[in-house]
Amino acid sequence: MMYSRTKNEIRERSMLWHLIAFALALTIPIFIFLTGILWKYADSERIQIQDSALAQARAIADDVNQVAAGLIATLQVTATLDSLRQGDTDAIRATLDSIRASTGLAMVLRDSAGTLRAAPGGYEAPRLPPLSPAAPAGGPGNAGAVTVSNYFIDPDTDQPSVAISLPVKVGSHQEGLSLSLIVPTSWLRDIINRTPLPDRWIVAMLDGNGVVLARNLDYATYVGKKGVEELVLKLQQREGTWQGVSLDGSPSFVAFSRSAVTNWQVVIGVRLAELETPLRQSMLIIGLTGVALFSLAIGMAWLIGRRLYQALEDLSESASSVERGDAPSRILTAVKEINIFGQGLALVSRGFQERGVELAASKERLARILDTTPCGIIEVGTDGIVTYANRMQAQLFQMEVSQVVGQHYRDLARPVSVDGGSSPAMDELPLAQALRGDNSVGVEMTFMALDGRPTTVAVNAEPLRTADGIINGALAAFVDVTARVLVDARRRQVEARLRTIVETVPVGIIFAEAPSGRIVEANVAIETILRHKIIDLADPASSRAWQALHEDGRPIAADEYPLARALSGREERPELECNYLRGDDVRRWLKIVGAPLRSEAGTISGAVAAVVDIDDIKRAQEHQQLMNRELHHRVKNTLATIQGIANLTARSATDIKSFRQTFADRIVSLSRTHTLLVENSWSLIPISDLVRLELDPYRAGGHDQVTYEGRDIWLPSDLALALGMAFHELTTNALKFGALSVSTGHVHLHWQTQSEDGKRKLVLDWRESGGPTVRVPVRAGFGSQLLNNILARQLNGAVDLTYEPAGLRARITLDI
User: Fold this and answer.
1) CA distance 775 to 804
2) 1 to each of 232, 467, 470, how far by Cα in Å?
3) Do 398 and 425 meet the contact criterion of CB atoms below 8 Å apart?
């Protein structure tokens, strides 16, 4: 036996060494793979924490936007009050007191120098420091309107505060005045603390100068301090991240997001030590795992090596017997395969001669098989000259076999592309790679045939070697796949068009397979509509992801969905409108239309369903129906009220002229009250608006014949209508016969709420003085009838009219 290398040229190692090396070769890639996974996991954990910090910063910024928008709305509503435009100082202070009582915040009226023109009771600071605005509220596009200040100390409370200001016009002062809502930064801390965050995360809010307004931890220590200079410069961006030493001196990762309304920055800091915890844990796991794997591999290799070594010793002795021509002895070892191999050696020694005869017959059969196979086969020598080609290979080249054999394979056909790419270099062809010792499997190569048509073949090529492993040629098999490539190209083109259509239409589309009903494909629009994942969900008959209701509130059974009905084959175009529970726990009305998909044999192979969100259409229809019913109800009530006014007016009128004038006045009063209700969307309205509507005309000109007082109470529409008419009748009576009929007369109205028997009641006290002497009327007029019929009977109230000589007194008590 000959060897290509001498024994001295080979470094011999023991079998145990090779087994240990083999075990390590298997273990090290596993260890590297596990290391990569753990490292990737630690890195993903760090990225997830960073992304979560930025998302939480955005969420808190959105929360700040909502709170600031509500405060701005309060300023804007206050700025529209008549008392502010008319410069009524008492009314302005009353309004500021009411706002402070309801919100807990002080709203002040100040000039540009900070001097207070009006403030709620108890607010003792004579002036505010000039407020430097951080930015216009809502961004630069709102300049000149609402502004938000930077950090300052409220001189009244000595508390860190910010101010939201709105320029207003008060009486004759048309410029230079502003309404300012003083917001303590403790409010901002409460906003921060509403959002649940992991322990040890630091959340802060900074103004436009980078000064800390609020902080979830150590609030008193850091409020009013300016942030780290490098971070403050970074905060000029709308949102982003930063890494450095934080204000408390610890290395930290910081995520920030700007409030679009206030221009404040919400900053969330996570210490780097917390971010690196997953990495340290992963390194520990990697180290322990590596030690365990290497120890186990070496130990197992040593145990197995001992058994294999003895078995191979016996096999080597048996092989030596065969080489000498002797009958090998029977091998009995602990390794089954070696025992079998030993038996094979005995058979080999007896079968060499028999195999020689069979080999010649096999060669002849192989030649016939190769000539009849539908696969082209070619063999080349090391020089690339073709030594064999079967008939199919010659047909692929559009030649005779004799024309192919003897030529260099490069001269037979020049490839246009390989695996759909560009034309390859000649040394990259499968046969060239096989001659270098590389195998090529499943390579698709396109070449131009002699008739000019492109032909695509799948090529497998591998080297031919001598018994010593030396390459002495190459063998390649060619299969014509031109037809399949053309079909695949057309199919891909059609699929691309269909995919473009499915992904473009604004309709959710789902495909399910039959008979399992498993959803196998869906477009992007469906997950936007349903707000949950679709692919790999179970079929509608078993999945809990599908939760919907019929219009009457009944749950929709799984087999009622159009997709399930289409899969069952019961209907060709099933439809359904349902109230669907989306993945974000919001219910929306959807319309679903399904259709079965059939194979060429006509059997159902799947189903498709189209889903459209029709919630807006449903809501519009419901709203229209509600508005129609409400309009019908209110028209009937108004007509009934007008009819009652007409009847009562007719009873008390002495002639048609007085009836016309009195009836018109009462209708106008009713109209004004209706207008007030419409402006408040027929919901609750303040009693002060009703009082001002009727009595403010008699307060003009500095006479002040009418005064009124009482805290604002919000009244429902039916009670507001009745009280509006009652105020009108009392005022009309005072003008004709009472205190307002002379210049020395005076009317005072006071109202308050009381609790009686667990019920909340509204008590109004109308007092007249300084007018003509009052006498008890001979008959009841419209006013007293209205007060008794509507207020006392219909609204379950109590009316007490006292005709004192000094003036009429009316006491009205109503349930509210």
Assistant:
1) 8
2) 82, 12, 16
3) no
Sign of CA dihedral 798, 803, 804, 808: positive
> How many angstroms separate the CA atoms of 503 and 511, rounded?
13
Helix (H, G, I), strand (E, B) or coil at 50: helix
Q: What is the C-alpha separation between 152 and 31, in angstroms, rounded?
A: 59
Handedness of CA 181, 182, 185, 186 (dihedral sign): negative
Virtual torsion, Cα 39, 40, 45, 48, nearest 10 deg: 150
pLDDT exceeds 90 at position 766: yes
Q: How far apart are CA 171 and CA 154, in angstroms?
A: 27
Q: Which CA distances in Å does 133 have to 162, 227, 267, 531?
A: 10, 19, 20, 41
First CA to last CA across the chain, in angstroms?
116
Give the contacts of 741 (CB within 8 A, at least 6 positions apart).
734, 735, 771, 772
Contact present, 717 and 683 (Cβ < 8 Å): yes
Closest CA to 235 of 260, 267, 201: 267
For residues 228 and 247, the answer to whether their CB atoms sit within 8 Å is yes
Name residue 597's beta-bridge partners. Answer: 606
Supply the angle between the helices 15-79 and 89-103 in degrees, to the nearest 10: 150
Alpha-carbon distance 749 to 723, whole Å? 13
- Note whether 123 and 156 are within 8 A (CB): yes
Check: CB of residue 158 under 8 Å from CB of residue 74. Answer: no
Give CA–CA dist 722/670, Å, rounded.
9
Widest distance between CA atoms in the chain:
154
Distance CA 389, CA 406 (A): 10
Q: Which of 412, 419, 415, 444 is nearest to 427 (CA)?
A: 415
Distances (CA, A) of 713 to 452, 649, 719: 95, 30, 12
- pLDDT score, position 80: 87
More confident residue, 648 or 489: 489
Q: Which residue, among 759, 762, 768, has the nearest Cα to 733 in the 3D structure?
A: 768
What is the SS3 assignment for 25? helix
Distances (CA, A) of 3 to 9, 12, 316, 466, 469: 11, 15, 18, 13, 11
Which run of H or of E encompasses 647? helix 615-652
The three-class DSSP label of residue 500 is: helix
Q: How many residues are given for the chain?
A: 816
DSSP one-letter string for 165-224: EEEEEETTEEEEEEEEEEEEHHHHHHHHHTS---TT-EEEEE-TTSBEEEESSSHHHHTT
Residue 536, φ and ψ in degrees, nearest 5: 70, 10
> Which tens digit of pLDDT belongs to each residue from 269-301?
888 777 777 666 667 777 777 677 777 767 776
Instruction: Output the six-digit token pair for 250.
Output: 């610890």
Min mean pLDDT across 15-19, 446-450, 466-470 is at: 15-19
DSSP label of 120: -
Phi, psi of 495 (to 5 degrees): -65, -40
Phi-psi region of 196 (alpha: psi -120 to 50; beta: other; left: phi over 0): beta
CB atoms within 10 A of CB 694: 24
d(CA 251, CA 272): 6
Contact 161, 129 (CB under 8 A): no
User: Confidence band (pLDDT; 50, 70, 90) for 223?
Assistant: very high
How do 706-709 and 746-756 pair as beta strands?
parallel
Residue 812 pLDDT exceeds 70: yes
**pLDDT tens-digit readout, 349-404:** 666 546 656 767 777 777 777 777 778 888 889 898 998 888 888 888 888 888 88
Q: Would you state the structure tokens that stand for residue 585, as one six-digit string?
A: 């726990």
pLDDT at 110: 85
> Which residue in 63, 30, 161 sits closest to 106, CA to CA?
161
Residue type, 237: Q
